[in-house]
Amino acid sequence: MTHFYLFNTLFITLLLLQALSGVFFNKGENCIAAGRIFVEDSIHDEFVQKVIAEVKKMKIGNPLDRSVDHGPQNHLAHLNSLIEYVKV
């Protein structure tokens, strides 16, 4: 699991997109996908709001459709793990 560290910077939008790419690249089915994003306290709330806004734009659906950003998880244990992260 790879970690992504984000500090206060003028380039928060660029780093946001890089962080999301690190998490969602190949639908997250990637051994080097960012499993955690650590964000400096001073920009935490702004960053979380930007993440939510970007994720809401994602298209969920058939992974064979190139316009889709995220398809179904291919392993039940992985899906359950993701659900537990969301609950936390």
Distance between the termini: 18 Å
SSE string, helices as H and strands as E:
EHEHH
- By DSSP, the count of extended strands is 2
Query: How do the strands of the widest beta sheet line up side by side?
Result: 1-2
- Poorly predicted residue ranges: none
The CATH architecture category equals 3-Layer(aba) Sandwich
Shape: globular
* CATH topological fold name: Aldehyde Dehydrogenase, Chain A, domain 2
| Alpha carbon gyration radius | 14 Å
Summarize the main sheet.
2 strands, parallel
Total of domains: 1
CATH H level, superfamily name: Aldehyde Dehydrogenase, Chain A, domain 2
Helix content: 40-55%
Put simply, the count of helices is 3
The share of residues in extended strands comes to: 5-15%
Overall residue-averaged pLDDT value:
81
Report on this model:
The chain is α+β, with helices and mostly antiparallel strands. It has one domain (2-87): 3-Layer(aba) Sandwich (Aldehyde Dehydrogenase, Chain A, domain 2), CATH 3.40.309. The chain contains three helices and two strands. The chain has a two-stranded parallel ribbon. Strand 1 (2-6), helix 1 (12-24) and strand 2 (34-39) form a beta-alpha-beta unit. The two termini are 18 Å apart. The mean pLDDT is 81.
Question: Which SSEs are present, and which pair or pack?
Answer:
Elements: E1 2-6, H1 12-24, E2 34-39, H2 44-57, H3 76-87
Parallel strand pairs: 1-2
Please describe the structure with a list of short key phrases separated by commas or semicolons.
88 residues; two-stranded parallel sheet; alpha+beta; Aldehyde Dehydrogenase, Chain A, domain 2; single chain
